[in-house]
Design goal:
about 40% helix; alpha/beta; 11 helices; eight-stranded mixed β-sheet; 14 strands; D-Maltodextrin-Binding Protein, domain 2; 3 domains; Arc Repressor Mutant, subunit A; two-stranded antiparallel ribbon
Length: about 325
């Protein structure tokens, strides 16, 4: 007869046995690991130290290995404890997401999606795409955050975002990707600049000028720096700033040139007295990608959104190519 405590359990299989971990015990273990002190953990969870200690002992018996090293100042984690902490946090996060989404269904809201996207996607395409999706599914909630490409990848990889949007130049780090949209990068110059009279220009012809550019981690910065290096030149960055609006304002005051998506700058050309000059380079047309951990195991809500955003593409084209 099973004498283990009744309640919610998570089951893990080993080659020789099936171990059932109590969720409460895992949660208490996380607290102990964070506090590095049983007394502090007990105070934080409003429990007796003996109750915390009993839970840890039970976990150690299940694992078959010590999880903590007791010392004068508190406790440290053993290698087994470090491993358990990693997976316990994953289990806790998954259960919290499950509870949150099921709670949304209970209140009539049919899901919640967290999106992290680069500025180009947010400025050009995503607002209208999300608006059309909400018209079809009005009870879905969104959290949308603007991030540089590398930060988008990190957020999707560690579960802080369900879906990311990046430029194709950003390494996907093994995550699955699908084509989203294409945009055209254009040189932006003040109206009175010598290059303003040109209809098009090669990138090597503008590298003698100073630039107003995006931050170092952005995919745009990586692209421009790489292309300059291929020409044996360095990109002369005078100012780095993330806002496209601010970049246009600074270009208009003569602080430098900028390379920005054409559809973004169209709204600023007249008001800021700017001129858009076509960049005669194959890389000036770039692809934006949707990125997620694994499409096949995504929630129905997330799959519906991905299918909506990639309406021109087959979701079977999702790949885990590392770019």
């Amino acid at each position: 007869m099973d004498q283990r405590p009744q309640g919610t359990h998570a089951s893990l299989s080993t080659r020789n046995q099936r171990v059932r971990y109590d969720i409460t015990s895992l949660d208490l273990f996380i607290t102990v690991a964070e506090e590095r002190n049983l007394t502090h953990a007990a105070r934080r969870r409003h429990l007796a130290v003996s109750a915390i200690s009993k839970r840890i002992s039970e976990l150690e018996a299940q694992v078959g290995s010590s999880l903590l090293i007791r010392n004068a100042r508190g406790v440290d984690l053993t290698p087994a404890g470090q491993s358990l902490l990693f997976y316990a946090r994953q289990v806790k996060q998954t259960l919290e997401q499950l509870d949150h989404e099921l709670g949304d269904y209970a209140t009539g809201v049919k899901g919640h999606v967290r999106i992290h996207a680069i500025t180009s996607a947010l400025s050009q395409f995503l607002p209208d795409d999300v608006s059309r999706f909400v018209a079809l599914y009005p009870q879905i909630k969104f959290d949308i955050e603007e991030r540089v490409g590398s930060a988008v990848i990190r957020a999707v990889a560690d579960g802080r975002a369900d879906l990311g949007i990046i430029a194709a130049q950003t390494p996907a780090q093994g995550l699955e990707t699908l084509p989203y949209r294409d945009d055209e990068l254009t040189l932006v110059v003040p109206g009175g600049h010598p290059l303003a009279a040109r209809e098009s220009v090669r990138f090597k012809q503008v590298l003698a000028h100073e630039f107003v550019g995006p931050h170092l981690e952005s995919s745009m910065h990586t692209l421009l720096t790489d292309e300059a290096q291929k020409l044996g030149r360095a990109l002369k960055l005078r100012i780095r700033i993330s806002s496209f609006d601010c970049m246009c304002r600074m270009v208009s005051t003569g602080l430098g040139l900028a390379v920005l998506p054409r559809s973004v700058i169209n709204q600023y050309l007249r008001s800021h007295r700017l001129k858009a000059v076509t960049l005669d380079e194959p890389w000036a047309r770039r692809s934006l990608l949707l990125v997620c951990k694994k499409y096949d195991t995504a929630s129905p809500t997330l799959k519906a959104l991905i299918e909506h955003l990639s309406h021109r593409h087959d979701t079977r084209a999702f790949s885990d190519r590392e770019r």
